[in-house]
Amino acid sequence: MGKRKLVLIYPKFGFSGSLVSHMPLGPLYASIDAIKAGFEIDFLDVRLNPDSWRERLSSMIGADTLLVGISVWTGAPILSALEISRWLKQKHPGVPVVWGGPHAAFDATDILSEPSVEYAISGYGSVPLAELAKTLSGAEGALPLGEIPGLVYRGADGVPREVAKSPEFERTDYRDIPYDLLARDLDRYGQLGRARRIFSLYSAMGCPYQCSFCSSPAQYRPMKKKYIPYTAADVVDHIQHAKEKYGAEYIYFIDDDSFVKLDHVEAIIDEINRRGIKIGLGFRGARISEIKRMSDEFLTKLARAGTDIMHIGAESGSQKILNLIRKNCTVQDIIDVNRKMARHPEISAAYNWIVGLPGETLEDLRATQQLMLQVVEDNPRAILFIPNKFRPLPGTELYELALRHGYKRPQNLEEWAQHGRARLHAGGEAADAHRQLVGARRGVSLP
Hints:
With 447 residues, this protein is an alpha/beta fold. It folds into two domains: 5-162, Rossmann fold, CATH 3.40.50.280; 194-442, Alpha-Beta Horseshoe (pyruvate-formate lyase- activating enzyme). The chain is built from 17 helices and 18 strands. The protein has helices spanning 25-30, 32-36, 53-60, 76-91, 102-111, 126-137, 216-220, 232-246, 262-275, 288-293, 296-304, 319-324, 331-342, 362-378, 397-404, 413-417, 427-442, and strands at residues 5-10, 20-21, 40-45, 65-71, 97-100, 119-121, 151-154, 160-162, 190-191, 198-201, 204-206, 227-229, 250-253, 280-287, 307-315, 348-355, 383-384, 388-389. Strands 3-1-4-5-6-7-8 form a seven-stranded mixed sheet, with helices on both faces. Strand 4 (65-71), helix 4 (76-91) and strand 5 form a beta-alpha-beta unit. 44% of the residues are buried. The model is unreliable at 421-447 (pLDDT under 50).
């Protein structure tokens, strides 16, 4: 039969990994077509094994190992991925290493400047990974490397070649997701100290919005449709499957945005209620403009169905910045929405912020500081996350503007690993000032 085993790895994260360790859906989804093609999958989550990953990985790799795939995010995970890749090349030089994941989605060719990595997959990974496995195993009818969608590989001259990605979403049947790969670790995934067994899942593919700092508009640009929701029946079938087969106690929707169509979420809630499913719910993606459209009755229905948190993109207290990043709302909208959320204390309103944007001034940051303080005053149960520092990503609308404001593009993977710490000439310094201002007002020290 030859080599038929693929080892997939999720690397360590930075600070955020100490607060949130969500189920690693990237490797699970990427393995679906390879499993259908008859390949065996072994999986290692380095976040859960930060000190013993070498021993665990050594036990997984043998004569039947065809390749090792690593799902890589921009920032700190790159350092972990590099450490793993270089260790693999020293210990198992004949096993090809493949990088996929978010970082490869926008900077795949630069990945191959790293000698320990042979291939990268840009975009959705399930079909490309399966096709690459077929090619490397010499399977009959396998595609040549130059025809595998989204694949980046070195040509005979050593120069990276990039194959165009598929312009379609990779649709997934929940019954094909290999949750069994995580069976022994299901209770170790969670967020913010929650002890319940959490399952992350999607209710929709894509996002129709055009936030100028976000990679999603660039990622979905080739797509004919930017947003496709799953049917309510499909979503609730998935929830019921996770609860009955794997003991899921809490569902965390990780859509780019869950509330594009309020009737879509309401149909899911109605179907959960119709089936009498008792389960906790949380939503990662919600815009101020969407919550503005929600009635108190809608929010009450969400709460009664088990919703206890909504992650909301407030982003800034400066109208100039809100306009720049295309949030389609006003500062007053944020205040009004927060007061609305305060009327529903069963649901924690968890606000995301972004600082260090090109052209951002101390005045803009003081406006964000004042808004954050007002949010807590109006809604004491609100959660304010530490502001994200803007990271310019190639393909996003603000990338070119960032270059004009003095941003220097990382030149290698080590520099990309520090990307979360990169400063713009004006915005980065203002971001640090903002953290000091908020810390001083709260009487705490922020790193």
